[in-house]
Design goal:
Length: about 375
């Protein structure tokens, strides 16, 4: 998750829900855990996008199956949840939200996630992995806008600069006449892929703002376990919606023939889908783990970095064509990333200074 928003998990000034063993970690042990989670986030996101493109390139054609695998491996998230010491008694006493509202939130967000994943699947079907990843970077611009209107976040000059640059980068991709489309994809389908990916980025940004709003105004809890539970149960709802879509669309009838006609063989077909599902959840574990171990700001920065790494990985793996327009769009997007990250760095410094001043003000003067 990337966004110009306040942390949606454990705040820097709070250690609610953090297990005591983590507070006693030695410096090198902490760095090892942080490094592992960085690898999970960047590697998971890049691998999931590349595997999704590989699925289509080798004969896969089911958009609903590509949507389903993005959330189907959500039980993996139970592993970190079970490793976290239970704080149910504390949470139950603090909760001011009834069960029916929690269920309603999970269902609503889960349906939005399913729709968002479907848009991403259509986009990846008609776009190369590198082009797709560059367009996905616009989620930072959309997130700044939604955070301003929904979460009352400030719209600074640096954030405005990031929004303009990322929007310009996406416009260059859209107007590129020399686009590197996958084999058999027409110009009209390329435009459909572009619009779907752009809409998916906007919807994902809206989802982030709605999640933050839910934590701040409705659930009023932001512990590690509560956020993991939200990810698990919204993914469960999204998976159910995807399964319904798979059967309602009739695509399930084509899956057997799709597997038999898969260019790399039936075993490769199954493994591609399984590992795509796993890598999406590995990315989720990395996102939550970094917020848990460091801060939401740090997790957002690494998520932003992963958006820049994915198109580069696509260039290496699939040898996507690099036109002058795409190179320019990538450089402009990196400039937008830098503006976004630097603004977050400034905000982080302000928070730290305010906390230090507050702590200094609580120190009693000597008698």
């Amino acid at each position: 998750m990337s966004g110009n928003q306040e942390p949606i998990l454990v705040k820097e000034e709070s250690v609610v829900g953090i297990p005591t063993p983590l507070l006693k970690l030695k410096s090198w042990q902490w760095w090892v855990l942080v490094s592992v989670n960085i690898f999970f986030l960047i590697g998971g996101q890049a691998a999931s996008v590349l595997l999704g493109r590989f699925y289509y390139d080798e004969g896969g054609n089911s958009k609903w199956m590509a949507t389903l695998v993005q959330t189907a491996a959500f039980p993996i998230l139970y592993i970190p949840l079970l490793l976290l010491p239970s704080s149910a008694s504390v949470e139950s006493s603090e909760s001011s939200c009834s069960l029916k509202y929690i269920v309603l939130i999970y269902v609503l967000l889960g349906v939005i996630i399913a729709g968002d994943n479907m848009l991403y699947s259509v986009g990846l079907l008609y776009l190369s992995a590198s082009t797709y990843s560059l367009i996905c970077a616009t989620q930072l611009a959309f997130n700044a806008v939604f955070s301003y209107f929904i979460n009352a976040q400030k719209f600074t000059a640096l954030i405005l600069n990031s929004v303009v640059l990322l929007s310009f980068s996406a416009a260059l991709i859209a107007l590129n006449d020399d686009a590197d489309t996958p084999s058999g994809v027409s110009r009209s389908k390329y435009i459909v892929g572009f619009v779907c990916t752009l809409a998916a980025s906007a919807l994902y940004s809206l989802l982030l703002s709605l999640m933050q709003f839910s934590f701040e105004k409705i659930l009023k809890r932001e512990t590690f376990s509560v956020v993991l539970e939200m990810q698990i149960y919204t993914s469960l709802v999204a998976t159910c919606v995807s399964v319904i879509g798979l059967f309602a669309s009739g695509e399930w009838r084509t899956l057997h023939g799709e597997m038999e006609g898969y260019h790399k063989g039936q075993a490769s077909y199954v493994l591609t889908l399984v590992w795509t599902a796993v890598t999406w959840q590995v990315c989720s574990v990395g996102v939550v783990g970094l917020i848990f171990l460091v801060t939401s700001l740090f997790s957002n920065v690494i998520s932003t970095l992963s958006l820049a790494v994915t198109p580069l990985a696509a260039l290496v793996v699939f040898r996507d064509k690099m036109s002058g327009v795409k190179i320019m769009a990538m450089l402009i997007a990196i400039w937008g990333f830098a503006s976004y990250v630097y603004q977050n760095h400034i905000d982080d410094l302000k928070v730290r200074q305010a906390r230090q001043q507050a702590q200094a003000g609580r120190v009693e003067p000597p008698c």
